[in-house]
Amino acid sequence: MRRGFLFACLLLPALLLARMLVPVASAQPVLNVYNWTDYIDPAVVERFQQQTGIRVRYDVYDSLETLEGKLSAGRSGYDLIVPTSEPSFARLVRAGALRPLDKDRIPNWRNLDPRLMERVAAVDPGNRYGAIYLWGTVGLGIRLDRVRALWPEAPMDGLDLLLKPENAARLARCGLAVMDSATDVLPSVLAWLGKGPDSTEAADLRAAEQALLAIRPHLRAIPGSGALVDMLATGEICVALTYSGDVIQAAARAREAGRGVEIGYVAPKSGAHLWFDMLAIPADAPNPDAAHAFIDFLLQPEIMAAITSHVRYPNAVPASRPLVAPAVREDPSVHPPEEALSRAFVPGTLNPAAERARTRLWNRFRAGR
Amino acid sequence: MRRALILLPPFLWLLLLVAAPVAILAGIALSEPAPGVPPFLPPVSLEAGWQGSFANLLTLAEDWYYAAAFLRSLVVAFLSAAICLLLAYPMALGIASAREGWRVPLLALVLLPFWTGFLPRLGAWIGLLRDGGWVNGVLMGLGLTEAPVPLLYSDAALYLGMVHAYLPFAVLPLTATLLRRDLSVEEAAADLGATPWVVFRTVTLPLSLPGAAAAFLLVFIPAAGEFVIPELLGPPEALLVGRALWGEFFQNRDWPLAAALAVALLALLILPIRLFQRLEDDGGSRRAASPPSRSSGQSLDMVP
């Protein structure tokens, strides 16, 4: 009895180890996808599985930090990831963590909007490593009913509403929030101050820090972007600086709940931070063939239209536009007007020292000191 | 020979799952960050030989930012452990003094929260404490307050979460110690005219000190490195070591500095453990000198 127990103690880990080291041969190919939370139409995945016979194992993250943390360790096991062009995609390209795409195996590549792809070429010359999946801006989510009730003539057309201390003080009672991301908030704050969004000047960063600290006492929370959607949708906060699609998702959820919570999105008129989420394949992906097939599948106009209709972020396949659900297609906060796009900026790449300075600044802001 | 055979499995276990990971961590702490997978240069390589540096450890010592995080973590851990100890002592004394048939069900009640996952329990606190949550609902329903009282993301919520999560770790060793204590000593004190309070203060309490120290440390050590509870319940201004480490690892992708922080935290926690061991040794020799205790047959030996 006792010997049997000891034996089991030794045998079991040995078996588990063997199981991990020896890949199990299986007839059905598997595609391991690692994507943002709430960022695809589940029916699309279902259709891909039926059409190709490839089983999709779908895993999610809610911050670029998590994605990069896993990928920098190597052997993540994922076949397809969706990093944001700046900073993660650019960094992964430089670190040699991505696999060049074989465009011959992605015939639907031609559906991509060349003007948008051009904007990503700055970090990925020749677009060798990624195709745009969805994109959006960073701006304000506003709970219109509460803000109007509290302050009928509130300036709801730009970042002044949140970043001017006197406005923040006035609205603090109904709940203000900034998403917890130095990389995705600081460029917008710098642009609002009239500085370069990529500035590494100490004086510019100090100005941004002072601007953030001035409104810090009025902030109810500095949550992750995932938690922020909930807070906005339930009406716990009424002004938030975050990703466009998150606000639009919160607005849709609030409408469904039908409790009179009315939410709108405003891109900063001072120039919006534009970002692109890229479809990319890790260098050590176990099944790059399936990943290529999946990218090609996603870039079909009707598939992209289904995704945009579902998650309310615009895509980079212009032919999908007429097929998008009308409510989403006509929503100017989903598809920003041409002139707003021309004023939007894509932040550049920072060196590690500049990154650290920004992280420090951010932590001081979080701490309120 | 047999002794060596028996010692081999735990020795291998410690080597494989404690010593080796710490050695790897220390190695990363001495390396330099570099873009790549993984994002650092190994401190020793076949071609370049030694290429590590002590810059990371120096940074920790020189930059007030990290020292402040360590200090704040130690304060939070100390207060959490102290509150747990204060709450756990009467609970443990009650359980140890209860009739034999009651002890196991009472201990089961202490352990019952572990049947639910850690995160759902924290989620429940968020649901209770948030502005639109139950507590504020009741307060506003009773007309005690007009606007919701901000309860979540405060120090109070932080300590509530810490104490709730770690209280069983304090109750168990205390109960074990109190069960093992020699009741005849207390009876003797009472026979000699001591009031119950004097008996407790001069006999029960000093005899239970090793258990109290174990209880304190079992809360203090995990609380010092705690990341999840302060993140979910605490105020955003509380930058603790856990958060600082997370920031270096995920935001700055500086694995070497994150590893250096982890090693420093480990070193910092070894100190109280050593102190505790000395206390245990003293207590042990004192216990060995006393006659075999009456209740030792049914003690719950859970002190590590």
Automatic annotation (TrEMBL), chain A:
* Gene Ontology process terms (BP): polyamine transport
Output the InterPro entries linked to this UniProt entry. Answer: SBP (IPR006059), Sperm_putr-bd (IPR001188)
Signal peptide position in this chain? 1-27
Query: What terms describe the molecular function in GO for this protein?
Result: polyamine binding
Main location, first listed in the record: periplasm
The subcellular location is:
Periplasm
Q: Which UniProt keywords apply?
A: Periplasm, Signal, Transport
Single GO cellular component term: periplasmic space
Which family would the database say this protein is a member of? Belongs to the bacterial solute-binding protein PotD/PotF family.
What is the purpose of this protein?
Required for the activity of the bacterial periplasmic transport system of putrescine.
Query: This chain belongs to which protein, by name?
Result: Putrescine-binding periplasmic protein
Question: Which organism does this sequence originate in?
Answer: Roseicella aerolata
TrEMBL record, chain B:
Region annotation (Disordered) ranges = 283-304
Q: Start and end of every ABC transmembrane type-1 domain?
A: 70-276
Transmembrane spans: 64-89, 101-119, 156-179, 199-224, 255-276
Compartments where found: Cell membrane
Q: Which GO terms describe its cellular component?
A: plasma membrane
**A biological process (GO) annotation for this entry?**
transmembrane transport
Show the CDD domains listed in the entry: TM_PBP2
* Topology of the protein relative to the lipid bilayer: Multi-pass membrane protein
* Compositional bias per record (Low complexity), positions renumbered to this chain: 286-297
Q: Name one Pfam family in it.
A: BPD_transp_1
What UniProt keywords are attached to this protein's entry? Cell membrane, Membrane, Transmembrane, Transmembrane helix, Transport
Q: Which domain of life is it from?
A: Bacteria
- By its UniProt entry, which PANTHER family does this protein fall under? INNER MEMBRANE ABC TRANSPORTER PERMEASE PROTEIN YDCU-RELATED-RELATED, PUTRESCINE TRANSPORT SYSTEM PERMEASE PROTEIN POTH
- Which named protein is this? ABC transporter permease
Q: Which organism is it from?
A: Roseicella aerolata
Identify the taxonomic lineage of the organism of origin.
Answer: Bacteria, Pseudomonadati, Pseudomonadota, Alphaproteobacteria, Acetobacterales
